[in-house]
Amino acid sequence: MLTKRQNLLETMKGGNPDRFVKQYEFMHFIMEVPSEPFPQPGQTIKNGWGITFKWPEGQIGGFPVHDDEHKVLKDISEWKKYVKAPAIPVEKEAWAAAEAHASAVDRNEEFVTVFVAPGVFEMTHHLMSMEDALMALYEEPEAMHELIEYLTERELAYAKALIDHIHPDCIFHHDDWGSQKSSFISPAMFEEFYLPAYKKIYGFYKDNGVELIVHHSDSYAANLVPYMIEMGVDIWQGVMTTNNTPELIKKYGSKISFMGDIDSGVVDFPGWTPEIVAKEVERACRNCGKQYFIPCLTQGGNWSSFPGVYDSTNEAIDRMSKEMF
């Protein structure tokens, strides 16, 4: 029987995996790394960038507050006045727990993985709102290029700290690039503004020993897959069914793998049942096949919004492995 790590690599290279990769099983997350705070349900917090996040009770996630009082970046043309990157901790004690955790992982079995969020695109709209960020790409392109470069340099500094302290094998990087039906911006605009940033960031990780880049965008982004390949993404996690995952595998499978095709919105809700989960898992596995595909909730982490859904999905994947391998 192949290890989790070996089975993933066989899947990614179109080789001979002996079972389906079971969601996030190959990633061993080191969550103790210093990072900006994010609220828990019912909380409102302000992070080091000055961004206020609120997670209302009864909702399944948090998001920045963008009224006039709380918006950090009020004028993109004066972004240097408003945007100040928080310092990256350098004290030994800030990294001690993460270093100890990483050193205890069996890297022959799992990939030591660091969770990085938000990404460059999300940072632009976290600072000033989605509407302002999208409009700024049209109205103030020079200032947006400058802001994106500033955010990229901050990411690179954080990446260096992660590599120096953790020596990760895998980076799980969040940046949602679309809605369920379309990308937020055109491929041409993505190429101009965001591709150069990600080529720098993901190139830096790859040049410094990181083996896997897993990019999370639980959205439509089929039109951006060529750029994902160019920037060095190994696995696109969060690929929704609206992308036509089987067609993407057929077209790009030798260059990138796809992790998802089990839409969280369809199975991860208050009235979920194991039968609903099993039906969606079977559809995904049979349609997408054994190579270049990892069946997974589109959720951006090894959890579910409602208790039991993630574990039930794993159980359904195990059953499909017995049937199809």
Detailed description of the structure:
It comes from Desulfosporosinus orientis (strain ATCC 19365 / DSM 765 / NCIMB 8382 / VKM B-1628 / Singapore I) (Desulfotomaculum orientis). This protein is an alpha/beta fold and about 325 residues long. It has a single domain, classed as Alpha-Beta Barrel (TIM Barrel), CATH 3.20.20. Helix content is about 45%, strand content about 15%. The strands form 2 sheets. A 7-stranded parallel sheet has the order 1-5-6-7-8-9-10, with helices on both faces. The chain has a 3-stranded antiparallel sheet with strand order 2-3-4, with no helix packed on it. Strand 2 and strand 3 form a beta hairpin. It is globular. The mean pLDDT is about 100.
How can the largest sheet be summarized?
A: 7 strands, parallel
Succession of helices and strands:
HEEEEHHEHHHEHHEHEHEHHEH
Proper CATH architecture: Alpha-Beta Barrel
CATH class: Alpha Beta
Question: Total domains, how many?
Answer: 1
Q: What's the CATH topology label? A: TIM Barrel
Distance between the termini: 12 Å
Count the E strands: 10
Helix fraction by DSSP (H/I, runs of at least 4): 40-55%
Low-confidence segments, given as residue ranges, are: none
Task: Indicate the overall shape.
Answer: globular
Percent of residues in beta strands? 5-15%
Strand order of the largest sheet: 1-5-6-7-8-9-10
Mean pLDDT: 98
- What's the multimeric state? single chain
Please tally the helical runs, counting DSSP H or I stretches of 4 or more residues. 13
Pfam families: URO-D
Protein name: Uroporphyrinogen-III decarboxylase
GO molecular function: uroporphyrinogen decarboxylase activity
